[in-house]
Fold each of these.
Amino acid sequence: MKNICLVILLIVTVACTPQQKDRTLKVVEFTGSGHALGLQHGKALKSEIASLVRVWKENTSEVLQRDADEVLKEFFEYADFEEDIKKWTPDLYKEIQGIAEGSQQDFQDILLLNLLDEFWVYVNNINNTDSHHCSSMGVPEANGRPGYISQNMDLESFRDGYQVLMRIKKTKDNPEQLILTYPGLVGLNGLNDKGIGVVVNTLMQLKASSEGLPVAFVVRGLINATSKDEMLDFVQNIKHASGQNYILGIKGEVYDFEASTNKVVRYAPDNENGIVYHTNHPLVNDDVKPWFAQFAPNVQVNKKTNSHYRYDALDNRLSDAANVNDQFLISVLISKDNKDNPVCRANNGRGGFTFSSVVMTLDAGNPVLKITAGPPDESEFRSFNFK
């Protein structure tokens, strides 16, 4: 079993090829909630969902030389997330059911697409390695300037070409939402029409669980919030399945929380401009896995990792930055200050790449999402407003 799961990690680093630079961002629009919303999603992206499921299984079977469905069976013998999904985000569980029905795919295949971090945790529990990348920033409003949150969302190379922006229309119960995703997934990050948004970073070093609310469902729960109290209560009081950093933008205010399965700790930097930035190692939460003890916040770093180099790049650019705006943040997102450990990552077929970049303007009266398909130095930002 240990050797099997060690090879699973190689799926994302070996059996993939670089994507050409002619990517397009697929924009879809749905309405409603629960099963009806998922049904629209599944039908509208039916061919793309089937393709992504097939690509994952082909890569798995090619590398493991065994049936990918056997791997899924082993994972779901470990995973026990459904009860927490039903408890904390029942509409999203119904949405997954709707996506499966609309796309005519097996429910567990669709559920797996929505357990991205949780599958990574499963592999990490076996081989104790960490190779995850994302770079995020949050800028509070100041001196008449709106607040911002932004991110390079880095994913495995085989997901390239599946970039989707999902617009969920406003209803009497839910705000309008703009969500970065891929076909079959409820969300990676996003912004709503109240000027409330979230960006995330995997913190694989923090303790995780085979139970709790998975990251994608936490993200959608946060984007669905309409007030500061609702958002802060949700992120701090649910049971988290996976180690994750959440930068929350709330109508110009910015909050950062490092969540493990056992506790949630707020990170508040001491820089005067109030800008927060994060990569993929914990800064304040000491609830780390035993094999990642060297990453505990109170332990001196003897050997820098990719995450530390990217954090240094953000720190050098942001710690004392003034007059920050969306164009300044874009300049950070495309940066490659350390050529071996850049903030902006190309898809060279080895490891991950920058799947998409987002810059969210938190103006409650006119929130805006700017987004790319692929690395921001290869793709132009497109702007989306709310209706």
Amino acid sequence: MIYFSHRGANTLRVQNTAAAFALAHAQGARYFELDVHLLKDGALAVHHDYSLLSTAGADVKLKDLTAADLRKYPLKNPFTQEPAYVPLFVQVLPVLVPELELLNIELKNDGNIYPGLEETVLRAVPEKLLPKILFSSFDYPTLQRLRTLAPQVRIGQLTRAFNVQEALNIHAQSVHLNYIRFTPQIAQECHANGLNVYCYTVNDCALARRLEREGVDGIFTDDVTQFTP
């Protein structure tokens, strides 16, 4: 079983910020997950939602902002007195590289809201680091485009409706789904076809142990300290 730090140590720092990932790394995490969006100026931002409403109280879309605009919208920070902002991918990546085992980059691209996102993300990852990158997305056409652009990269199909043939059609390495949708039969079908199964978001040790017994290969968690020595 592997444990992905889901958006960094987000129970102690603002999620998807460099500070959250730095703390998770200090806590022993070597597997990470983050979300990327394409800004108006072509920069990649690390953030979960498409807007800043829930994180900064501003009803603005990331697609309408530039990298410089991000400094206009401080994120809500209940943890420290330090100001927090949506970071760029180029600011977060160096925090994760030391001793990195695997980084899951989720491409937020429902309905191809960010044309060209796939090419931009591929350019942003150094070629020597690609073997340690796992790309995922809920948007299946995004994964199809990614596979066409980069036959060699690792892809995880993020899905709400498991279909093993869809994963095989894009030569995925893994299937990612909410643990409430997981069944042992899904694990059996995935493993029979050479696919790993990763479940989100698991913050309970007993649940993690049960999922492992039922065939889950990894989980996404908000608190890696529960699972690291």
Amino acid sequence: MVVSIPDDAPAGDLGLDDGRREPTMTLTGWRQFVDAPPASFDLLPGRRWAALSARDKEAYDEARLNYHSEMIIVATSTVREVARQGRLLTLLNRREISARRGLIVSGQQTTGKTTALKQLGRTHELMVRRRYPARLADRIPVVYVTTPPKGSPRKLAMEFARFLGLPPVSRGYNTTDIADAVCQVMLQARVDLVLVDELHNLNLATAAGEDMSDHLKYFTEHLPATFAYAGIDLERRLFTGIRGKQIAGRCVLVSTGAYPCDAEWKALIATLETALRLHRHEPGTLTRSARYLHRRTGGMIGSLSHLVRAAAQMAILEGEEAITRKLLDTIPVDHAAESRQHGAA
């Protein structure tokens, strides 16, 4: 979402819609995600801001609330490493005809796994578009699905079918029929990167989980594509037994976790702080509170982003226009981060 209000904009032009997009688990939603420009917003000069009518100020603040709900994607070391390994694997697999190597992004919740996975897909798709501009109409470079909870091979195949926009499948079609149709469409669309999120929903300790694992293997063997997965603690959940060892032997692992309170942590905070669009916020306030923010969030980038964005929105709603320690104390973080903080105390 891009919001830029020039100094001479008419008062009535300050409104905008909420910019909602479809889920990225559909082709339309994924393309909206890929095509969306970086979030931006230009603050009005102080005098013009103070002179806004009540109606225009409400529209202006609503635009800022929307902006702070999205803000920017912080290029963490995890995002960079996933992009690096994913790029390398897509090159290595380009002409591979046997077992292709995959990528697994594993770690605790709110450590940036999904963000890194989606950014890998977005970067790859934009690169393919630049390379083959004349063939975009019939090409789908990236497919993004989530592993269905308590799923089955049929449910997994339906996730792929739903992303591709295939018509509803009648009960007469078995799992293999659906999988074959999905593979045929993905081959014709020249899909070369498949992203599978929430892989922790695949439980190899159950018969259904084993069947779904075998079905994923079926897709990897029938598609000339690189598969990248993300999920919570996948080393412990997946890398056991014959199937788990087979997965481990074919995939590169990128582990995510909490950031220590070091130079990178402070740099992440500084990046988020420069993205704030508040009229009275003192630059450097958040950076100087690095240890406090680390204690509140446990060093989790997802929790940090939530805390800063929520505080910015509350600063707008309450008219403070600045993020202070007092305000941050009133903003709850996710339960996991709060539990870690109380446990450390």
Amino acid sequence: MTPRDLESRILLEAGTLLVIDKPPGLPSTGRSLDDEDCLQHAVIERAGGMVWAVHQLDADTSGVNLFTTERRQVAALKGALSAPSARKHYLAMVHGRPAWETRTVTDPIGMVDGTSLGVIANGRSAHTEFEVLDRGPEHSLLGIRIRTGRTHQVRIHAAHLGHPLVGEEWYRSPPCSLHPRQALHASRLILEGQRRLDVAAPIPEDLERLASELSLRLDRAASR
């Protein structure tokens, strides 16, 4: 990522807090601090010093990603992210047309066979809320709020409902080849506390094109 690209993706810079609209195809963090193939490295280069990722998005997931230049702020921000008042919103395009308008999934998530994740009885608690925003001929647009932060939570719970994400390779059989990445976007984050944070990331161009191809309207997604 070039410095110019990074500057154009800064959603908020306030004190030690930096919120970036993470592009798809780039991990939040790398294998090491010297790994250039991650967003954290670009942010560190810009800051000229250490920057910590408060949370991580899947490499293929776009949207709101929090960083801080002060190590002691990491625990406080992680606490705010896990608080009941936190609102973590996503947009996703999925296969099928759900028969429901809203659905809450609380099935636990864990290792299924030692190598892959999925819904499993003795997994960690997970809470995902789904809302249908639009239906196309064969696909749907969902607004999603997660109340926990398990790895691949949205992808796993969507597939568990029978509506895997468009572009899903791991939790759909056969893998979906309609889009080069999972159609998942971290659209908005609201944190309460001494200082309220409310930041949103615009829908990326590739998902706008995909929505058009799947005959899905994005007008109801604007407030999500």
